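Per your request, structure below.
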């Protein structure tokens, strides 16, 4: 990957992480939360995905799966940026209802506006795009493996969130599930 694209990917990820850390300070108090074992089940794979993105010396995983044409990493950077834009839009829309782990907040609200009118889990949609974009920008098997691992982790966490939202909001959430897809508008 050309150095300019590598810097762009690094700036996007670091900027997103900084925003996420700052935004995490403005949330409602937690009424109930999942166990640490449940959280570890989807967090540990994400740490593995991060390691795969950062370590450039992984033998066969460091081989390219995409050609080194200049337009490919450029497309990857743009896809990554679009993914982060979706996550930030969704995070802003959630406001104080957001949490990094699966929780129910005091006075928790079911948000159905903004990106939540398009998909039920737009943060995972955006992060999926970001991981895919990063894999395209890097163009190596390790990045593709990181994307697959991250997406599997998001799907697992999504299943936990779905159960908690059904328990919390009942028929209101059932109606929402019938009307709005989980990750890809009109598809999944």
């Amino acid at each position: 990957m050309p150095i300019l694209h590598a810097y762009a990917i690094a700036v996007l990820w670091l900027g997103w992480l900084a925003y996420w850390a700052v935004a995490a300070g403005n949330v409602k108090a937690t009424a109930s939360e999942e166990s640490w074992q449940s959280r570890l089940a989807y967090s540990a794979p994400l740490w593995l995905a991060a390691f795969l993105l950062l370590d450039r010396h992984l033998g066969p995983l460091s081989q390219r799966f995409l050609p080194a044409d200049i337009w490919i990493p450029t497309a990857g950077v743009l896809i990554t940026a679009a993914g982060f834009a979706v996550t930030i839009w969704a995070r802003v829309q959630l406001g104080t209802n957001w949490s990094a782990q699966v929780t129910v907040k005091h006075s928790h609200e079911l948000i159905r506006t903004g990106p939540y009118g398009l998909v039920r889990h737009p943060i995972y949609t955006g992060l999926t795009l970001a991981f895919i974009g990063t894999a395209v920008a890097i163009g190596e098997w390790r990045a593709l493996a990181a994307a697959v691992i991250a997406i599997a982790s998001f799907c697992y966490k999504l299943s936990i969130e779905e159960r908690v939202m059904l328990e919390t909001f009942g028929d209101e959430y059932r109606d929402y599930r019938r009307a709005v897809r989980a990750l890809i508008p009109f598809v999944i």
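The mean pLDDT is 92.

Regards,
D.
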